[in-house]
Amino acid sequence: MATDPLSFRSIFLHAWDLSARGIDPLLEWAASANLNTLCLATTYHSGWFIHPAHPSHRAFMTEGSVCYFPPDLSLYKDTPLRPTPSRMFSDQNWLAKTGDRLDRHGLRLVSWTIGVHNTRLGRAYPEFTQRTVYGDSLPHALCISHDAVRAYLLALCRDLAINYPMYALQLEAFSWMTVAHGHHHERDLVGLNPFEQELLSLCFCSACTRRAAAANIDCIEVAATVRGVLDAVFREAPERPPGHPATMGELEERCAHLRAFNAWRHAYAGALLADIKSISLKGTSCQLLLETPPDVSLANTVDGFASFAYAQTPAQVAVTCLAAKKTLPADWSGLLQCLIRLGQGIPSSPSQLRDIITAVRSAGFNGINFYNHSESPPKMLSWIRDALA
To answer: Is 75 left (phi over 0), alpha (psi -120 to 50) or beta?
Structure first.
């Protein structure tokens, strides 16, 4: 019998899925749906969700920036930052209980791990958050340039890798974040476009400017360039002045130090991932997966990437996956997973979901991950089994 090229067949889950459905019933369902992996959120940010099948509610607000396991505090001695345990796990270690039951259901466990996206810690430690070119703190975003944040992320990953039977850590938000975040009543009447939001998201905190200056980057010139463009936007909105840059690349052509600054940021974020791989995962079989599209500069550092295909038709999924695969060396053998959202119109039928999965397989991807168990309409969850068959 032919081997299914989709060796990684997963679904995103939350702790409240375990508490609502029960560990064994949920794992039994996953196995019967032809899945072989659970991508479980072990840390998570704030959120306000509709849960169409929860036994006790339909609308749900998360606790916000908590972890869903008891942290091993001995690992966090090099940083003042500590994970805050969820009240949901105050009386038992459900993550450990889930890990103990994996083998009987033929499943693997992946830690869906949120890093710097942490409003709780950002509000408690504003000195470690990202700062805009105007000096404003982004309270939802810790900055990876700070030694305390780096130590926290390394300890968090080590905690999960050595204390639980993790097949992999799937990392989300382990680099700088954007100013557009989704806060309650978040508002922008200026109408910043994505490029302008990117400029306002660049971090000029003390750690970033110090490290960039050590790399011979003129941060004063970079800040003046960025501030000049944004000041013009704020002054002229809703219009833009003549000669206003439309892309980061265009602005980098005008300011070589901005290009160097962005290159430094990319390299520094890559170095953090390399440290997680060599330090946090040392002595374990735990793999390192990114919840970001392929990046050839990280191909020798991480074990997998993910491409988003939310609300895409089968033809669009094929284009997305083929384009992503082409960015990596032909002999690269890591995990390429396609993230498929079950909801908001696409897929619209069992046959369309089958066609989407066929497109993923045909593009040469070896993984698929459905988003997500608690928010997806139950009828759509029922389509997974036959679509993967």
So the answer is: alpha
Cβ atoms 15, 94 nearer than 8 A: yes
Nearest to 349 by CA among 296, 319, 313: 313
C-alpha distance from residue 118 to each of 104, 245, 306 (Å): 35, 32, 22
Cβ-based neighbour number of residue 89 at 10 Å: 19
Residue type, 282: K
Instruction: Classify 155 in phi/psi space as left (phi over 0), alpha (psi -120 to 50) or beta.
Output: alpha
Question: Which tens digits make up the pLDDT trace of 279-310?
Answer: 999 999 999 999 999 999 999 999 999 999 99
Among 229, 234, 174, 226, residue whose Cα is nearest residue 202: 226
Kindly provide the residue ranges of all beta strands, DSSP E only, lying in 166-272, ordered along the sequence: 168-172
Q: What is the CA angle 330-333-338, rounded to 5?
A: 95
Query: HSE-up of 342 (CA within 13 Å, CB side)?
Result: 29
Q: Which residues does 68 contact at the CB level (< 8 Å), separation at least 6?
A: 14, 15, 40, 41, 42, 43, 44, 85, 86, 88, 89, 94, 95
How many residues does this entry show for the chain? 389
Give me the DSSP letters along 108-170.
EEEEEEE-SB-HHHHHH-GGGEEE-TT--EEEEEE-TTSHHHHHHHHHHHHHHHHHS--SEEE
| Number of neighbours of residue 182 by Cβ within 10 angstroms | 10
Residue 238: cis peptide before it, omega within 30 degrees of 0:
yes
Predicted TM-score (pTM) of the model is 0.96
Tokens 């330090």 identify what position? 279
Q: CB under 8 Å to 166, separation ≥6 — which residues? A: 109, 110, 111, 160, 284, 286
* 343: its two tokens: 């909801």
- The pLDDT assigned to 1 comes to 38
Token pair, residue 374, equals 């608690």
**For the segment 197-251, what is each residue's pLDDT rounded down to a tens digit?**
999 999 999 999 999 999 999 999 999 999 999 999 999 999 999 999 999 999 9
3-state DSSP call for residue 385?
A: helix
**In 10 A of CB 190, how many CB atoms?**
14
The candidate with the shortest Cα–Cα distance to 303, out of 321, 277, 278, 324, is 277
